[in-house]
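Title: Request for sanity check on Trehalose/maltose transport system substrate-binding protein prediction

Description:
We are preparing a figure and want to confirm that the structure record we downloaded matches what your pipeline produces today. Could someone re-run it with the sequence below and paste the raw structure tokens into this thread? We only need the token string, no images.
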Amino acid sequence: MSKSALLPLALALTLAGGAAAQAEGVKVTISCGSVGAEQAQCREGAKAWEAKTGNTVDIVAPPQSTSDQLALYQQILNAKSGDIDVFQIDVVWPGMLGSHFIDLKQYVDQATIDQHFPGIIKGLTRDGQLMALPWFTDAGLLYYRQDLLDKYQLKVPTTWEEMTADAKTIQEGERKAGNDRFFGFVFQGRAYEGLTCDALEWIVSFGGGDIVEADGKITVNNPQAAKALDLAASWIGTIAPDGVLNYMEEDARGVFQSGNAAFMRNWPYAYGLVNSGDSPVKGKVGTAALPKGDGDGARVAATLGGWNLAVSKYSAHPKEAADLAAFLTGKDEQKRRAITGAFQSTIPALYDDPDVLKAQPFFALLKTAFEGAVARPSAVTGERYNEVSTLFWNAVHNTLSKQGDGATNLAQLQKDLNRLSRGGRW
């Protein structure tokens, strides 16, 4: 399928940059994320590779929603289209898309691969083949307004119940002071993969399990998981706006960065943006590990995220595409992105780099978040993960929307997952 035929079918995909091909080189097309500074950072790295190699890069911007991205990528790859050479893929996608990607071990030496966290490399390896190179990693964080905590003589909350109470106190105070648009807490509440990430954190933090355990057993229907979802549902229309039910990452950041929220759940990328030169809350924001729930098994939990670069089997220039992927995920480029964009590196050595720590001192605080990181059940569910996640986020969204309580919706989810797995046999 040609580019002219394919792109109209994928209306969400738009060309975002790149020069015309130079006669002496080839043109490589990369799909970079659309959240925060991702496009600008990708473009800067691509320009450096162009200068080094004499090749050119076209950058395409996929939809912001990870769910829409996955659907679009599946369409492109199932068509065996070579329109995109390098794909930015979520950490949970290798099991679903890996058959369409080349083994990067053919083009990247082992020393380069060994720079990265072994656990991430393991997750990107399928049947001994390296499906993608790690670009940046993520874990959910709690963002808070330190100035408002000080104003109302509050400490950083360590439990969801404390956060709920503190958000209510600050919200009431700020509204009495004249800001009718102020809310206590914003997060990712739309029915998409981002809600799976948020809700998994709530459930695990309450000791409610991992949706599907490593042995394939479905455990999501339990009282602690229901309690977590019911607490989250109580936020809607009280400390969180009704509109949060359609929020993705950038929607939450927009409200928080404008000064209209006390707390926010988001990924590390938001730190550099909320503290940028023109940010209304610059210098007023702190970060911490997400709160924990209560009861037996309560713990700090942050969903593990992260994005990686994979090369399509249908690329006309696999060698150059692999070289671009290796360059963008390399130590020098990751250091630049960490310093200028606060992107969380996949290379352990950079966490001890004085230049990185000087520019992003909050990196030192992220260790706690990563210690509590939990993986989505993509490994055990394999090619069915997207269906699992869709069922999960719909059950959660129904609960948040007051269409049934946590217990009712999780009981139905358990039945749906049992049918999908044929009794736990994924």
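Thanks, this matches our download. Confidence is low (pLDDT under 50) at residues 1-23.
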